[in-house]
Specification:
Blueprint (H helix, E strand, L loop, with lengths): L3 H18 L18 H30 L3 H7 L7 H17 L1 H10 L9 E2 L2 E2 H20 L2 H6 L4 H7 L1 H6 L3 H9 L4 H29 L3 H13 L10 H21 L15
Antiparallel strand pairs: 1-2
Helix pairs in contact: 2-6, 4-12, 4-13, 5-13, 6-12, 8-11, 10-11, 11-12
Length: 282
């Protein structure tokens, strides 16, 4: 008899292949030389594909959980983190955003000094900035639903330890970003080294973020704080190791950077504690 653990792992891998592979099914979304992935036409087509895959994954996971746990449909969706916004879940969103902001204390200083408070910008079509829409709405929402809400509960029900769920499940999220190297090589075929380094950096960053995202989901029992943090991190970007300006400014930046790491460490447990936790202990 196939174990629930093996089934849950296989489903996670299948969801990953489905989420990435769907863009290769259509000539509109399929990576090719000269394709501008920031084109509003391409973004809209990929958004539609990601939305369809996300709904299929939600149906798949909720169906399996319903079969395994025999909970009613609403309790099953609540177990996946889709519970309606309550005062407690709203407080959880605020608390985890505050926690994440502490970690980004240094980059916040850089943004304030440079006056960068808008989005990334990009192609605007019909009054919609499609690059920002993808980066700050669709990507956080669909990625967190598929890679967290649709995967983590399966691992919990399968009896996987919280520690293993936190550190192993996000690996598929990191691997899912390797296809960007293929897109890069299609346009720059002689830059294998740059593609490898870029993919390694992206894999590391997305995997580390995945650890944090799964931790938040397990601690709060809600997908919405995770989506909010994903949007915030996409807006901030990866913290830099230096800042333009005089030496005293660089010194202040590093103080805030290191202080933010220390503050994040001290506040990680108290600011993620919730009565809605998905597991009793981590």
């Amino acid at each position: 008899m196939i174990s629930m653990n093996r089934v849950a792992t296989s489903v996670c891998i299948f969801y990953t292949l489905l989420y990435v592979g769907v863009i290769y099914l259509s000539p509109i979304t399929r990576p090719r030389p000269g394709l501008n992935r920031n084109s509003s036409f391409v973004i809209r087509a990929r958004v539609r594909a990601a939305t369809i895959v996300t709904m299929l994954c939600v149906l798949g996971t909720s169906g399996m959980l319903f079969f395994w746990t025999r909970k009613n449909w609403w309790n099953t969706l609540s177990f996946m983190g889709f519970a309606y916004i309550t005062p407690q879940s709203a407080l959880d969103i605020i608390r985890v955003l505050l926690l994440t902001s502490v970690l980004f204390a240094g980059p916040f200083l850089e943004r304030l000094l440079s006056g960068v408070i808008a989005g990334e910008g990009g192609i605007v079509s019909g009054g919609v900035n499609w690059v920002d829409w993808r980066n700050y709405v669709i990507a956080p929402l669909t990625e967190e639903i598929v890679f967290r809400a649709c995967m983590v509960p399966l691992q919990v029900v399968a009896g996987v330890s919280p520690t293993a769920i936190i550190f192993l499940t996000p690996l598929v999220f990191g691997i899912a970003h390797f296809h960007h190297a293929y897109e890069f090589l299609l346009n720059y075929p002689g830059c294998l080294g740059r593609a490898a380094v870029g993919s390694a950096v992206q894999f590391t960053y997305t995997t580390i973020f995945g650890w944090y995202a799964v931790f938040i989901l397990l601690r709060t029992g809600s997908i919405w704080p995770v989506v909010a943090v994903h949007t915030f991190c996409n807006w901030m970007g990866a913290p830099g190791l230096s800042i333009a300006g005089p030496r005293w400014l660089s010194f202040m930046y590093w103080i805030l950077l290191l202080g933010g790491v220390w503050g994040f460490y001290k506040l990680l447990w108290p600011l993620t504690e919730s009565v809605n936790a998905l597991v009793s202990s981590i």
